[in-house]
Amino acid sequence: MLIKSTGRVDRKTKNLVNRLEPGEIAVINHEDIDEVAANSLVNCKPVLIINGAKSISGRYENLGPEVINKAGIPILDNIGQDAFDRISENDIIEIRDGNIYIGDTYIGQGELLTEDVIAKKLKETSKNFEKELNKFVENTLEYAQKEKDLFLENLEIPKVKTKFKNRHTLVVVRGQNYKEDLKAIRTYIDEFNPVLIGVDGGGDALMEFGYTPHMIVGDMDSISDECLRLCEELVVHAYPNGRAPGLKRINELGLNAITFPAPGTSEDLAMLLAFHYDTELIVAVGTHSNMVDFLEKGRKGMASTFLVRLKVGSKLIDAKGVSKLYRESIRLKHLVGVIIGAIIPIFIVGAFSPPGRQLLKLLLMKLKFAFPI
């Protein structure tokens, strides 16, 4: 393999994709590449991905590398931290048989993740799944015990301008299959006009489909300046002690925001806000709801999400994966049924009207001539 191109370097994949151009080399430091990150990289069309960490560590079955491989983009994996640190933005990187060079300087080497290598590594993850599941459940229960009073009773909800009462609320996270699911529920959005909450990058996801979010909730680290400026209300997720790093960016943009100090995820807070202010229904798209989702986010449990969903469950509809229900093409028997259903009323109307009876008689006469008995 011989590849030579400009390198774009970032420890955070979500930041890198904002400046990665087609034909360049993406240099990341992303252990266990998840599907969302993989799709964002694929959309940028790099010629190669170099990963300083293990794209598949073996802890759980992460499908990101498989997505990248199917898109025809090679991954040079696990080059190590020293080699990663030696590559700078805009370096002209050359790959020769798995070895990395900048000019004549040897940087390091990695493992090329072929389809067979990826399949083998994913198969090996099944051996660790039960152990990871046990640890995940234990952590979830431990933190749920600590946080249950806070989330179920004593969490102080900030005052907001957005009106939720007597309206539905759509909470959008830029998670797995969010595009497909938003496409599947566009009719619902247009008909019910719900309150639109973007969780960080979920605001940009809504704008991709022509909607301006009423509210953004999150750390404000993965959303565009344009969306922040257009949105009607900003809620910065702060640490329980009140520290809110996301406020710095809001202040730099000259915008106003309120803070919401709480543990857990930003999507939890979005649901709690809607529930507290008497929304009729919460429809969630792209949210994190299972073990793999949370391991991909680097979390060891899902205590807050478990507790929040217990609290808001009577009003919550999770639309994640709804698009998969509509992927099947129309079956022939269904099409025939529709055609017959349309013909029967026409036949009945025709049989009871004089012109219709004459037409049916002519049709019967032609059939007799065509098929003499």
From TrEMBL:
One of its GO terms (biological process) is thiamine diphosphate biosynthetic process. The chain crosses the membrane at residues 334-353. Pfam families: SteA-like_C. GO terms for molecular function: ATP binding; kinase activity; thiamine diphosphokinase activity. Residues 320-367 form the SteA-like C-terminal domain. Gene3D superfamilies: Thiamin pyrophosphokinase, catalytic domain (3.40.50.10240). It comes from the Bacteria. Keywords: ATP-binding, Kinase, Membrane, Nucleotide-binding, Transferase, Transmembrane, Transmembrane helix. Coiled coil: none annotated. NCBIfam families: division_SteA. This is Thiamin pyrophosphokinase.
